[in-house]
Amino acid sequence: MGVIERYKDYLPISDKTPVISLEEGGTPLIKADAISQKIGEGYDVWLKYEGLNPTGSFKDRGMTVAVSKAIEEGSKAIACASTGNTSASAAAYAARSGIKCIVVIPEGAIALGKLAQALIHGACVIAIRGNFDDALSIVCELTEKYDAALVNSINPYRIEGQKTGSFEVADSLGCAPDYHSLPVGNAGNITAYWKGYNEYKSKGKINSLPKMLGFQAAGSAPIVDGHVIKDPKTLATAIKIGNPASWKQAEAARDESGGLIDKVTDDEILEAYKFLANMVGVFVEPASAASVAGIFKKAKEGYFPKNKSATRKNIVCVLTGHGLKDPDRAIKCLKHPVVVDANLDEVVKEAGLIG
Ligand code: AN7
Question: Which of 60, 64, 92, 206 could form a disulfide with 176 if both were Cys (CB 3.0 to 4.6 A apart)?
Answer without folding.
Answer: 206
